[in-house]
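User: I've been going back and forth on whether these two constructs are worth ordering. Before I decide, could you fold them both?

Assistant: Sure. I'll take them in the order you sent them. The first construct and its structure tokens:
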Amino acid sequence: MSLEIDRGMPRWLPWLVWSFGPAMFFYAFFQRVAPSIMIDQLMRDFKVSGAVLGNLSAFYFYAYASLQIPVGLLMDRYGPRRLLCFGAVVCAGGTALFALAGAMGPAYLGRLLVGIGASFGFVGALKLATTWLPARRFALASGLLMMAGMAGGILGQAPLAAVVEWTGWRQALMGSAVAGLLLGVGIWLLVRDHPPDVREHPVSADGYELLRGLARVFRTPQNWLIALTCASMSAPLLAFAGLWGVAWLMQVHGMSRPEAALTASLLLLGWAFGSPLAGWVSDRLGRRKPPLIGAIIIGASCLALLIYVPGLGPSLMRGMFFLCGLCFGTMVVGFALARENNAPEVHGAAFGMINGATVATGAIFQPLLGALLDLRWDGRMVEGAALYDRGAYQFAFSALIVFLAFGLSAALALPERRRLR
């Protein structure tokens, strides 16, 4: 597909249209974390154990990750407008079903629908960026997109908790369902797949052609290198800060739960700032490899210091967490490389493949780190929970350092496009 954008178009219009993609990703990330602040109320109302309730998160997570490649193919075929609108409406419907559920069956179905609808957000926003924004702004747009997702995650924590305390979890979720429906209406009314004066070659509706496009994406070696690079940088966010980091800070460094949660969340905050910053730097340089390589080296070094060096002190540790996030947020530059190394008609499939790989690190490394911890567990328990020592955590978290080493090797082997127009 070749694009020629009308030069007489207001400069703000492409960014306005594109902004609905980040808005959808913001909503999707909000929905991802929302149940975490209402666990006790959900357990009380549904009369279930924590293990059963924990499956609610898995329904969203696996639906989202498994659909990334199909979503990419659908984006290439049908365009982002219809699919983003569909995703927002399905997400809102699933949220309403979950809010009204009186038993776990409908609640599971509601969360499954939320995951299905949310799966269209990230890839849809990237697809909009390929058609509405110039190539030299794509990395910056990818960073702003990731920042929007992190902002949604932050909104789904303390601010949502305050609303839940005031109205109850069902009313709070019904309000977010209404917001999702309004977002879907806004997407349908204001978003278009490409600017009005763009000339494009039609995409075949033949399913065989779509599968050929997918095979083309998988046969491109650069895509595998990009996927490995990005996945290595997302694993610390999803597995370290997202799950095991809080327990490590409490058990090894003696922090209270609120202090540990605040410290771990700084990696998320660093990610939110690092993503657009890395995109801006990459676009200014007109290069992709140097930011990725430098970020992996610095981020992995900071993570290694956190894991292996005792006695850093709370303030220095918080700085290291933020710097890790700042560096690893650079992974969004990989999506700019994916755009530049794939034909426009398979951009969606390429984005889906890489985003699926990054999300899958959570499914792989969260249980992997737990299994490695169990291998070094000495049998101590505190109030029914396993207590791991410093050595066990160092052994388990070493898997992240090894994975980052593989990611660095992939980044060094990546192709480079020096100047962007």
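The second construct, handled the same way:
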Amino acid sequence: MMKIAVFFVGEVQDAGFNASALAGAEAAAVEGLAEISIISGVRYDHDAIGARLAEVVPEVGGLVFVGGQGNIATPEIAARYPDKKFAIVQGEKTAANLTSYDVLQEESAFLAGALAARLTQSGTVGHLSGHRVPPGLKGRAAFVAGVRHANPDIQVLTGFCGTQDDSSVTKTWAAAEIAAGADIIFTMLNNARPGAIEACREGRARQIGNALDWVDVNPEVFIASAIARIDLGVKGAITDMVAGIVPDTIAHLGLADGDFVSLSMGDEVPVATKEYIARLAQDIRNGTCTVPNTYDGPEFQP
């Protein structure tokens, strides 16, 4: 049986992308697709990532790197080990022995922006993320575009606070956006989400989560959640790796490809608004609505 390492930056139980990815790795192990080892707790630092990869790769036949942080380190290690197989989930690099799988979280982020524009009472909404990695940047761009698609008059406060895991920082940023007028904030965070939740409770603002279904977890705070099935991306990467399949282009996994992304909405969202979001999702599926992945507008600072 092939030995495959699934590599995480940060902790796996992060209530976000890593947790979803871990579920995919565990499902692959339960199904007996491969002998799976989990590598986690690696610092968000290029040298630390490279050093840990150098330790792990000689012991396995393949490695799946979870997160956009792998776009630099994984091609380097793949070039050093041409006889082994590599994949990046949420990546954008390919090589003879490397492929990338990109769950199009930006599509659900676009829907989240459209919903925020429809629901805001103040005319101002917020976005808060941590690290400036490609998936986070594309998600931010899509959220802002979704807001503008639904109502170009809505103001968007957007920022990257520099951490996915420090709740004291995210509380400060979220509170600042609320103080500046945002009554709905779209958060792309991991372990640091509790800080934003606390700020929303104190500031009487609502939040749109990401990755997991936060409406199901905390409907009091979360009006919606931009779900991204990273678990399906990880399991697909492992399945292809075992089968010897190495796509020569990035495997994009979005609304048009199955249940990879969606927008969960709370019971209080009006039926007409839910129907509007459903039509918008269909427009994305059939290609009549294009989701931008770049943003060059102003940045919010607390």
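Notes on the second construct follow. The chain has a mean pLDDT of 96. The first strand starts at residue 3 and ends at 9.
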